[in-house]
Protein: CST complex subunit CTC1
Organism: Amphiprion ocellaris
Amino acid sequence: MDPLQRLLELLKPGSEAESTWIKALFTFITEHLSPVTCGPSPPAADGSDTGELSVFQLSVSVVQQIQERMCVAHSLPVSYRLLSVSELVSQQHLACVSNLSWSTNQQRAWAREAELSVPGQRALPKVNLLLIGCLREGRGGEWRLTDSSGSVRCECLSPSPLWLNRPVFLPHWNYIPQNASGQDEAGGCVELIGPPVLLCPGPEQGLAASVGAVLINALGVREAAGLLLHRVRGRRLAVWGQVGSVCPLLVVAGTTFFCFTLTDQSQSVPVLVKDSSRLCWSQCVHVGQSVCVTALRVCVLRGWRGNNILCVTERSELHTDYTPTHTDYTPTHAHTDYTPTHTDYTPTHTHTDYTPTHTDCTPTHTDYTPTHTQEHTHTDYTPTHTQEHTHTDYTPTHTQEHTPAGMDTPLLMMSHSDDDSEEAEPSVQSGVRMKQSRVISYQGTVTEVVSEGAGLYVIDGKVGLCVAYQPTVRRKLRAGDQVELHHVHFLFRPCPDFPPSMLCCCLRSSLKVTTFSRLGWAGPVLRCPGDGALPRLLLQGHRGVSEYLWACHLSSQLTHSLVPGVLKQQCVCLLSWRLMETLWGRGGQRRRDIYSEMLDEPHTCPLTQYTVDSAVPQYISISELCQSLQLDSWSSVSLRSLLPPDGQSLSSSEIDAALSWSCRTLSSYSGDSLRRRPLLLVGVLDFPSQMSELKQTLQLRDATGGVACVATETSEDDSGGQRASYNTAWIGCLVCVRQFTMVTERFLQSDFPSYQHLDQEKFITDRQTRVYLQFSLDHLHILSPSVAMVTHLRQKGEESAGDVTAEEEKTADGKRKREETGSSLSASSVTMTTSSVAGSPRPCVSMVIRVEQKEGVAWRNTGAETKEEAGLTLCFSARAAVIGPVVRWGRDPKNEPMTAREAEREGEDKVVLVFSGASARWFPVLHPGCFYRLIAVHTQDPSVLISSGISGQSGVELHTDSTLQVTSDWRFHTLTRPQLLHTCRQVLSSMVLSVSEVLDSRSEVVCFQGLVSERISVRDRTSHYGHTGEHSGVRLTLCDQSGRSLHVYLDLSHTPYPPGLLPGNTLLLSAVQRRQSRTGSVYCRFLPVSSITVISQGETSLAPPPPPAPIMHLGPWALSSEQRCIVGQVKGHVVCFLFLQLQWSCSLCGSVYTQVCDGDSDDSLFNFLMCACSSDVICQPISLTCRKHTYLRTQEVRRFSRADRDFVTTLLRPLQLTCQHLH
């Protein structure tokens, strides 16, 4: 009879649908399973042969197994479809779950429970699919489900070697397709939630009759440990014991292997598994399991101090859940020092009653009590005793708030520490401590995948997990997985960017998934780009866990904050690693000894010790920094604190003037309410954007935003002092900024009636803030230089320290190094001027100039006719000397060394460069005295750089320089001293004056520098204000080392706001007007052509006190007719009070009431004050700082009459002083 007809008669389908389903089943087995199982196959693990099963027998077996697991008895699952492996891989693109025994209500309850375990995640969708195939061993110890159409990788919770090479039916499984979370292989992965159903007869799990004699003679661990000392050629051993540790699979020199240890109460023996057909045992053994391994031989493991080890042979067999039958060794009563702590455990046929009382492999005594939950076992470890070390019970600071579904036991913790003290002595570095980790066991649920590529996860929502110190596994952990970890290192606060409690796995640790996740794929995790890049760097660099965690966090942050196109994603990990090496130093730990790490006692590994540093730098994006500073600018200050100590006596106008401007400065190193750790910024140095409010400085930019930067750098002259940033090679560089000052300027418009009304917001009409940074370019670390910076560093003879390609440059020749540098940096320039690689074909013309004078940038009406440029345009001009002729180039020379033909000159022409609109962005980097190469690209016409003169009438000589309008696509490249010809390196005499020289000068327009000692806002309500609001007037007090000072008045109504005008900074003011007041005081006034530049940064967090005024004697000071000293200190005593004024102010409205008294007044208060001021207590020596009143005419003509004669004589004006400070 036809086998199909026999099958139908045997099963007796109750409907046409069931008959059709049975026929489809028979056809499927015939096409996909029969060629695999009915043909020759490798022997099973126990040596038996699966035999040749007929299609009929397989079909009957499948139907019977299906009916046994159906939720409805005596029915067939006609809604379920058999699916081949190739169809599963090619058609199923979404993660799914299949369970034959589920009803609809059970499936809904399962999904609800899964989604509650990890909030924010969705459960796997259910599909009605059936899988039938044969379990085979794949490469590297993996398990694969195979049929005639193909194979797919399988992950099992507790597999048995007896499953191999047998046809199986899978009633409950998950499928995670390719590119889903936790799966990066082609074809996806099948997760066996429940054990497979064997479709062919075979020996039951346990002792087979053929090997019973061998297992009866199996040795215990103690006896096997004794035989390890004496090798006997040809001897094969059968050893049984409890698994103490399971090391991960390793690949060394092309050989894949793993190790595990067998323990009893007093000894442990290591077992090496390197036979390719036995690598699948790595998933079959787990800590706490009782096993027996046969046909072991004693061999020497090279590299492990010559120690002997048990090695698995090709004839070895693994018997799990082994129960010894001989009575010469009683596990629970063999040693009198053991007292069992669990007496309520009754073993069943699937678990042994073997309870070890002592172990050397894991340095603590444990009580092992398995509790049955589905198909896996959970263990409860309680530290009790050890032979060589003394341990105390470890109470974790983090406790499990819930028990994962399906687990009867609470959170497992086990302490294994050679040193019970949590902290060691502090190291030499301030704030850095070395601590000892604790070795524990733990089980919990993965609640977050922090970085799959870096091997970082979160368990139970509060415990971090790092598996980077282990080899990369094929199946990555997914959110929702329940895991069990043994011999894992517990670290407390190794990195402030991760949870305080961290678990880290070494080569001794074992990580076992006890329950697969029920959750679907939440999308790719992009917080750590470059799958496996950071663990590979960790393996090469031998770094500590604290440094690794910090680099991982930085990598995830830079993925979101780097400017798009700066670096490839693979380079972000390398960039973070290089930056970590810069901060921590390049010296790592010693090279890892893998065999000692896995097998040595006592255990040592890179995780045994770790550093704790609360002051580790904290990366912050630019937008986050600016938002924090702006939000904290007003909340961190009280208006009363901005007033002087005598603020209660100030009038309404004085209060408003004092509150109109204030400043807050924070150092990146000092702690404050904003943060407790030093800050770290990473970004590209750029020109100010069109939307930037501060257009006179450079900008540090990342993908989240930009911030203005007041940058200085070391001068090239012999003095080595600071000057404003002038090197255009910094434009386009990706830099790390560690040492900087955050400045928040506050502008307040108010109308407070009195001091008592400062807490009322209704009197504040407007408030604004401006945020920017101050730093020196000398303190920046270049992560990825621009093409121009590469040329600059090469000319200086320096290596491009910090470049992400530094490792490759060490082994490459010079030409290759330049090509790699250029190619890796072309993307980092974004829209900068260094976007093309040096040497690329790009016709252009250039000329070399030296800037001699630069006007200030201002909003001017250029008369533009286009609609886009209508109105005011940002403009400035610079006067420069042309060094040589215009030179043609076939490529962009950028800042390459100056050639001889660029200096062929007959005379030094002058040119005025006019910048407007987009070309005004060059203002921050053009400075007098510096050389630049001006390049006009995409042209070979020299006339574009030839300036045009101003035509005049015949016979009229014009004393003016020719002008050149700079277009938006022209480029300037700074030529530093190493890039100049020797004829151009002479230092020009500087015309910059000091404050004292300005006071003594007679020039009307001056250029000078000075230290800002005071800044106040000047209000002028009569003028029309521009972009800076009502408080566009600023008065600066500048001084020099001599102590002399003068006031500079700035009108910022038609200029972009200049940052950096802070007390403590040194400013360079060009083309300012020197004027003299009516009283003879010298001051300076800002002109429309004036410019102001910060050339040196001081400690702006504390305003420096002005230099002390010189001590003056009243007599010589009165006779002196010089203007040299206007402010001085005088000492004397009061002899008479000529005038006294009493003043009262209203506490409600602030109005001032005055009463002037004279000597004839009978006012008792006046008389009392006059007596008090004339007393000896008051009239004692005092010291005053006074300002001398100066006059245009120091002498005056006086007429005297004596009798009938008149006399005319010339007298010096009397000395008049205004007291500024009473000491």
About this structure: Residues 159 and 283 are 7 Å apart (CA to CA).
